[in-house]
Amino acid sequence: MAVEGVPPFFTETIIFLSATVIAVPVAKRLGLGSVVGYLAAGAVIGPFGLGYLGSGEDVLHVAELGVVLLLFVIGLELDPQKLWRMKRDIFGLGAAQVVLTGLSLYALGYYLGFSREVSLVAGFGLALSSTAFALQILQERGQLSSPYGQRAFGILLFQDMSIVPLLAMIAILAPQEGPSTAIEIAGEVAVILGAIAGVILAGRYLASPLFSLLASSRAREIMLTAALLVAFGSAWIMHAVGLSMALGAFLAGVLLAESSFRHTLEADIEPFRSLLMGLFFVAVGMSLDFSILMDNLWLIVCGVLAVMLIKGVFLWGLTRGSGSSNSDAFRVAVTLPQGGEFAFVLFTAAIGAGILPFETANLLNSIVILTMLMTPLACLGLDWVAERLKQSGVENPVIETFEDAAPTVVVVGFGRFGMTVAQILTSEGLEVRAIDNRPDRIAYARKLGYKIYYGDATRADVLAAAGANKAALIAMCIENDRVMGRSIDLIRDGFPGALVFCRATDRAHALELTRKGVDYQIRETFESSLAFGKAALESLGTPLDRIAQIEEDVRRRDEERLQMQLTEGLFAGADRLHGVTPRRRATDETVIESKNRGE
């Protein structure tokens, strides 16, 4: 569809945006999630729908960058130690799922009369789940950091890595495309290992100093450019040696997970990731051929049911057998039963190698897309069953809902004040996430063993990346009154569930914070001044009970003055500053009790 005088890409962009603006809110209102909305939008505007746009293949090449950015952001949330702790899920659970599901689907295909080669490609291609789809569901539900979410991610990570040997399988099935000598094979292996080593060395020793240098310039757009450069550069290196682009971006993200700039990088990339991921799912929806679907309806429907059932059974059984609760095993099973984007890659390679007929590939692609559409319905079905069990009074149901809570405390501003606050909170074992915008302060705090990240408190996306969206309390410990005020407004609008505790720089600032309705505020010098004065009185010989009486009176007068200043102005209540604290009468209960004890 083209309009005379208007560039084609401009018209296509308008069509893309219009379709998603309509479809995504409708899908979310129906409880199906945004991914289904994108897929439906693509199916409607694509060449097999209303025909507004041509083939989605060109769009898909650009949209695949969304998968790259998604894996980079996921890598930022996993430090190498955490990844090592997941090795059992990645190489044990993930490998078992791919092998068992792939062999089962291969056997089914061979039983139905397909050749061994076609059955192998189809079976192992359909054994792979959609990393983009499943992670989008987990993120929308806030479950990626939950135990079952981490197990699901471990399985997905192995599936991403398995695309390399599966593509090698294509080369073996088509010998003319593969290496013919051991020297060529050794050379390819050496190049791959060299590329991985290059990404690791650059991520560990060059990326953090680069971001530190750019952060000192306070140029946000340069930080954004550097973040995209790191993600896409790592993906390009891996792709150049025949590995997955997404895997390269994930590796770069993991290497930066312990960097001080983790949360800012995540916030900077998130808009691009979301937009490109939406574009990716629209392009996938455009590839759904309704004529093939209708001509082979029963075959495709049976294929969808077989893939989801076989994969779901293995996912449930393996996760249950490896120690997960029944609830978590069910949730993994309904989150990962769909086909994945790497199936498209594998089927395309098989077509090029002459292994997979084009018509068969279209059937398999239709099965993959429909399993994606069915997955949110499976999740909703599990939620419905869990809710019915809960309403019926069943105690300790085997199926729980997807709702979990993970409260944290975010400390904004990590100078001397914020550092002391963090020390008290971590002494109780609470999870503390600290952000600051001064690289020198961050470097100093990290040398002392604190985990602190670079971030701007006036950006809602940075606060969200730091955990404000699930924080029980946000401690505002920054010195700049204006910046704190802007940040509080953002928190009240975007994260209303969090308590807001503030450090006030002076009395006027304390009044401003009180008017903003913060949950707690304290002047940074008030308590230390009281302690100083009490120590002075004690050194001058004042009895301890008299010192306590004076402190109580000073606090009372200060609070009365603050209340007067809220309505009458900063200089109201000046008389509360002066006057001698009245001494308690001898008939006070404390004095009488002392006399009864003979003191």
From TrEMBL:
Q: Does the keyword Cell cycle apply?
A: no
Q: Where in the cell is it found?
A: Membrane
Q: Which residues cross the membrane?
A: 6-27, 34-53, 59-78, 90-112, 118-138, 150-173, 185-207, 243-261, 273-292, 298-318, 339-358, 364-386
Membrane topology, from the record: Multi-pass membrane protein
Is Membrane among the key words of this record?
A: yes
RCK N-terminal domain span? 406-522
Keywords of the record: Antiport, Ion transport, Membrane, Potassium, Potassium transport, Transmembrane, Transmembrane helix, Transport
Q: Chief subcellular site?
A: membrane
NCBIfam families this protein is in? 2a37 (TIGR00932)
Family membership: Belongs to the monovalent cation:proton antiporter 2 (CPA2) transporter (TC 2.A.37) family.
Record's protein name: Monovalent cation:proton antiporter-2 (CPA2) family protein
**What species is this protein from?**
Roseibium algae
